[in-house]
Write a structure and sequence with these properties.
5-stranded antiparallel β-sheet, mainly beta, globular, single chain
């Protein structure tokens, strides 16, 4: 199998775990005269924000729009002819937008923030940069009070970590002084309660990456939360517990090139413990994920047999590991690829879904299991050799069903299915596919779990259209006309599940604009403004 040949170097192991954690962590943008359009809560914007080259081809600006009309407002754009707006993110409370761009200087990428409520111009949120300095990434705190960003703000090419208030004031560095040539890595994370930021850095020894956390307000100190690493050891991935009290991390802390799972308590009785079981030579933990209630960690590892990857959980309060995946056929593994997530907790934490070729080698099917390992159930339909469940399966937000893609009914057609967590009521959702076409992996549950929307690929002419259905496969309807923007599949549900927004060349072939409509396919409205020749709406968010 593929994964039996892949873990040959430390670099590959680090890459696999980092990518897997990116998938697990985790788990879309308009224009108008009034930023608070049709808003029942005056403290929150309920429209869309989008990025488009609306006025000058290839010069992107930021706009807001109502969710059900093209009442568009320009939020921000460059003040210089060669300027551009690169990327943006709406605050979780839908009151501000932070963005990176070359607004004032075509050689300097800076951070700005603009309110969605007061109509004021954007404010530069980053500090004064040295010649050649840039802001390279940023992340909103979960409570929307601050923005963390990574930049070489003080010393060119020394990338450190900073925060700033949502209104653009209070800029300060929060990472500790770094050793010569040291850097903060890009995977810094806010704690769920927004009180701290954890980050990896070679803060003390160049090229030895350890884990630190810093208190943002109401406290002092910047402390290392990973254990003592052996020579050449590194922390390669980490994740906050949902209650913000602990950080789980993977590192070759005790044995070089053997990546094990540790838990560091950062609030309460502080301590570090190894929580993965004894690994064989060359064994590794590949990915891990906290349960929603912070009581357990699920992880994927070749803990019992080298190069046989299985699924385990550890109860943090009780200690001890449970293998929760079922008995594997010879050659079987949890997960089809090393660098994919392959398992997901249900949002309510009652079950774990995972992909494995548990019963037939090479035939990957979908299973669910209780956190302690009992009640292991195959929930996908009957598959035979050459068929597989893809690894992009998704729990519904209410944890009642799992959606998955598979060539379950037709060898060369990948359809979309949903099933109850116990494997009953397996239903095909995609009813419109022609032979040989596929459902894209960008399907999405509505926030209220009542419906699921998906994109079909008609291979005969490369047309991508959007459909949505009730969770049981009934009331299936086409949502979009024209061709959905196929390089990014830009579409999403509104937070209240009432509408779907999407980008498509619905009115003019090759001109991609922003539309919304009701979940049942009615009331289709273009909500973006008129575009310059060759202009397009590039992306959007609710």
């Amino acid at each position: 199998m593929l994964m039996n040949t892949i873990k040959t170097t430390k670099l590959l192991s680090i890459t696999a775990l980092t990518v897997a954690l990116t998938f697990l962590s985790a788990c879309g943008g308009g224009s108008g005269s009034d930023n608070v359009i049709n808003n029942t809560n005056p403290s929150e914007f309920d429209g869309l924000v989008y990025q488009a080259d609306a006025n000058i081809d290839n010069q992107f600006k930021l706009f807001s729009t109502a969710k059900d009309s093209n009442d568009v407002n320009e939020l921000a754009g460059p003040s210089i002819s060669d300027g551009d707006l690169l990327t943006y993110s709406m605050s979780p409370d839908h009151t501000h937008v932070a963005f990176l761009g070359y607004l004032d200087n075509d050689n300097t990428q800076e951070l700005f923030v603009v309110s969605l409520l007061n109509g004021q111009p954007p404010v530069k949120a980053s500090g004064t940069l040295p010649v050649g300095g840039n802001i390279v990434s940023f992340k909103w705190s979960p409570d929307s009070s601050r923005i963390a960003y990574r930049a070489d703000q003080d010393v060119f090419q020394d990338f450190e970590l900073y925060t700033v208030l949502a209104n653009g004031t209070g800029n300060r560095k929060v990472s500790a002084p770094l050793v010569l040539f040291g850097d903060v890595k890009t995977d810094y994370q806010w704690s769920p309660d927004s009180s701290r930021i954890a980050y990896r850095a070679d803060q003390e020894t160049d090229e030895i990456f350890e884990l630190y956390n810093t208190v943002i307000t109401g406290g002092t100190g910047n402390g290392k939360v990973s254990g003592v690493l052996l020579n050449n050891g590194d922390v390669v991935g980490f994740q906050w517990s949902p209650n913000s009290r602990q950080i789980a991390y993977a590192a070759d802390q005790d044995t070089d090139n053997t990546f094990e799972l540790y838990n560091s308590v950062v609030l309460g009785v502080v301590g570090i413990s190894k929580v993965s079981g004894m690994l064989p030579n060359t064994g590794n933990v590949l990915s891990f994920k906290w349960s929603p209630d912070s009581s357990r960690i699920a992880y994927r590892a070749d803990q019992d047999t080298a190069n046989v990857f299985e699924l385990y959980t550890v109860d943090i309060g009780v200690a001890g590991n449970n293998k929760v995946s079922g008995t594997m056929v010879n050659g079987g593994d949890v997960g089809r690829f090393v660098n994919r997530p392959t398992f997901q907790w249900s949002p309510d934490g009652t079950r774990i879904a995972y992909q494995a070729d548990q019963d037939i080698d090479g035939v990957f099917e979908l299973y669910t299991v209780l956190p302690g390992g009992a009640d292991n159930i195959k929930v996908s339909g009957t598959l035979t050799t050459g068929r597989t469940v893809e690894d992009d399966f998704q729990w519904s937000p209410d944890s009642s069903r799992v959606a998955y893609r598979a060539n379950q009914d037709n060898f060369i057609t990948v359809d979309l299915y949903t099933t109850f967590a116990n494997g009953t009521d397996n239903a095909k959702i995609s009813d419109f596919l022609i032979f040989g076409s596929n459902v894209s992996n960008r399907y999405k549950w509505s926030p209220d779990s009542s419906r699921i929307a998906y994109i079909e690929d008609l291979l005969t002419n490369q047309v991508f259209r959007l459909y949505n259905s009730l969770a049981d496969g009934t009331s299936n309807s086409k949502v979009s006309e024209g061709n959905i923007k196929n390089n990014s599949f830009q579409w999403s549900w509104s937070p209240d599940s009432s509408r779907i927004a999407y980008i498509a060349d619905q009115d003019t072939v090759g001109v991609f604009e922003l539309y919304t409509m009701f979940a049942d396919g009615t009331d289709n409205i273009k909500v973006s403004s008129t575009l310059v020749a060759d202009g397009d709406v590039w992306n959007f968010s609710w």
